[in-house]
Amino acid sequence: MTNMKVFEPMKINGLELKNRMVVSAMVTNYCTPDGKATEKFIAYHEHKAKGGWAD
């Protein structure tokens, strides 16, 4: 087994990710009752993306 470093880049089928940080699926209750994204839901994901999660 390879010693994997969380903050080092890795490639998966040609897609290079800048780190190995992941978030499991979870409920935020930031969408409308019929499942549409709200501004709060969008801002939540933008904040995570700007914080350095793999892209």
Give a summary of the structure in a few sentences:
By secondary structure, the chain is of the alpha+beta class. It has one helix spanning 39-50; strands at 10-12, 15-17.
Explained architecture:
The chain contains 1 helix and 2 strands, in the order ββα. By secondary structure, it is an alpha+beta fold. The mean pLDDT is 82. Strands 1-2 form a two-stranded antiparallel ribbon. It has a domain at 22-54. The chain has one helix at residues 39-50, and strands spanning 10-12, 15-17. The protein is elongated. The relative contact order is 0.21. β1 and β2 form a beta hairpin. Helices cover 22% and strands 11% of the residues.
Helix and strand topology:
Blueprint: E1 10-12, E2 15-17, H1 39-50
GO molecular function: FMN binding; oxidoreductase activity
Protein name: NADH:flavin oxidoreductase/NADH oxidase N-terminal domain-containing protein
Domain NADH:flavin oxidoreductase/NADH oxidase N-terminal: 5-54
